[in-house]
Amino acid sequence: MTWEHHADAVALAGGLRAQGYEIAAIETSVRSVDLFDWAPRFPVCVLFGHEVDGLPPEMQELADTHVRIPMLGVKHSLKRRDGSRSGRVRIASQVPATEGK
Fold it and tell me: Which of 22, 24, 31, 51 yields a CA-CA distance of 20 to 30 A from 97?
């Protein structure tokens, strides 16, 4: 997967939507579907937000789909209890990833 850095993620995601991309926010909200129930429409742009604050409201509103990643335990976090990150999960902060671009 390739990725690019853009200063204006909202404009970038809007441009990708205009090109036919599904915009999917990894976010727990009342609109969220479970990751295992999500059937992405390709091409897809996946938005990841800050672990504590999530995605900014304008990014959440832009998303076609909200996808919830189920977590076990008390706190819903991709961090381990000791504060380190799992070696199997990487988080990009508010950086849309595009397939094949």
Answer: 31
